[in-house]
Amino acid sequence: MAKKIKVAFVCVHNSCRSQIAEALGMHFAGDIFESYSAGTELRPQINQDAVRLIKEIYNIDMEQTQRPKLLSDIPTVDVVITMGCNVNCPFLPCKYREDWGLEDPSGKSDEEFRKVIGAIEKEILKLKNKIQTQSLY
Question: Which residue from 35, 55, 115, 120 could staple onto 25, CB 3.0 to 4.6 Å apart?
Fold first, then answer.
């Protein structure tokens, strides 16, 4: 069997969107690619609203399997997905890069979080399909 593609979900703080993407990547596409998340600055913990809602919606406890990480804490990856951090987006070498342009829901309502979580789920499924059909790079 071919080696699994490694995907990094990155944003500046690695506390919310990229963590959600790592969790949903493992959940929906763990059979197709390995998911990692990282940032250029560390927060002491994963965003607690994200933790609560991911547990509520998918029954996934992010705090059991994930922690905030720096870019230097993850292995070399094939694909980099930036979450939509504009000018300060971290750079990682890769074969393929995509920006999902998602607003950071931190400090906003559960409804805003749910919108972003839903958008991340859709993007994860699209990415899984691209990798499966090898139409990435």
Answer: 35
